[in-house]
UniProtKB/TrEMBL annotation:
SUPFAM superfamilies: P-loop containing nucleoside triphosphate hydrolases. Gene3D superfamilies: P-loop containing nucleotide triphosphate hydrolases. It comes from Modicisalibacter ilicicola DSM 19980. GO terms for molecular function: ABC-type phosphonate transporter activity; ATP binding; ATP hydrolysis activity. This is Phosphonate transport system ATP-binding protein. It is a peripheral membrane protein. Its main location: membrane. GO terms for cellular component: plasma membrane. SMART domains: AAA. Residues 2-237 form the ABC transporter domain.
């Protein structure tokens, strides 16, 4: 469960770009965050993984207050926040197996990932997850030999290797064609259900958000202006 209370973020001395945000996301639920460019979607995600320092407010992930963690506890908490990226962020010259192992290792330099011998249980775990998303047969392929959809599945498995408490996806389908986008969105929903994970997806394509998620959060100028099911969004518009 993710519980955000009165979250404020102000960059420098400017106007806050997150203005007293409240948001609860239970496990097993996928939330699409929509809103015009500049609404604050990325800032919200970055506050959760603390790439951006919140100005005030609270972010509880399960029992942990994320906003006040420092150093080692912060590092530990971050390792349980799975990130999925628009551009996949894979290391092209590494194999699929090496790329997904990077998730567990906290994104070590690629040359260390390549030289490393992984414990049998980590290999086993990676195969299980790759099986689950349908890429096990690519384990020894180089990442740059895969299609976009396959690469995003590698990104998903890498995030799952962190044994995450939450998945944060920043425009995960923006580089994909519509058919592949659908598959990835359905995969995220399936994983949320099976692993009881809250999943937050920043998405610029409102059509995709409406089609593939049960809950949509709409942001505008740093506030949540809509939180509900896709059908109600139509009534607002
Ligand atoms: P849409 O109409 O698609 O919802 P907007 O036209 O309302 O989007 O977005 C307008 C622009 O206003 C955005 O590009 C954003 O950069 C800018 N903007 C951002 N913050 C503020 C603010 N606090 N007040 C006014 N404009 C803002
Ligand atoms: P979105 O993801 O919805 O496009 P962002 O979170 O990227 O919105 O941006 C929200 C607002 O914060 C925008 O007005 C943007 O210009 C501003 N902003 C984002 N990052 C920074 C930064 N590092 N420094 C200053 N302002 C920023």
């Amino acid at each position: 469960m993710l519980r955000i209370n009165r979250l404020v973020k102000r960059y420098g001395n400017g106007e806050p770009v997150l203005k007293n945000l409240d948001l609860e996301v239970p496990g097993e639920s996928v939330v699409s965050i929509i809103g015009a460019s500049g609404a604050g979607k990325s800032t919200l995600l970055r506050c959760i993984n603390r790439l951006v320092e919140p100005t005030s407010g609270s972010i509880l992930l399960n029992e942990t207050e994320l906003t006040t963690l420092r150093k080692e506890p912060l590092r530990r908490a971050r390792r349980r926040i799975g990130m999925i990226f628009q551009g996949f962020n894979l290391v092209d010259r590494l194999t699929v197996m090496e790329n997904v192992q990077c998730g567990r290792l906290g994104y070590i330099p690629y040359w260390r990932a390549a030289l490393r011998r992984y414990p049998a249980e980590d290999i086993e775990r990676a195969f299980q997850l790759m099986e689950r998303v349908g890429i096990a047969h690519y384990a020894n392929k180089r990442a740059d030999e895969l299609s976009g959809g396959e690469r995003q599945r590698v990104g998903v498995v890498r995030a799952l290797m962190q044994d995450p408490d939450i998945l944060l996806a920043d425009e995960p389908t923006a580089s994909l064609d519509p058919v592949t986008s659908r598959q990835i969105m359905e995969l995220l929903q399936k994983l949320a259900d099976e692993l009881h994970l809250p999943v937050l997806i920043n998405i610029h394509n409102v059509g995709e958000a409406k089609e593939f998620t049960q809950r949509i959060v709409g942001m505008r100028f740093g506030r949540i202006i809509f939180d509900g099911v896709p059908d109600d969004l139509d009534q607002e518009a």
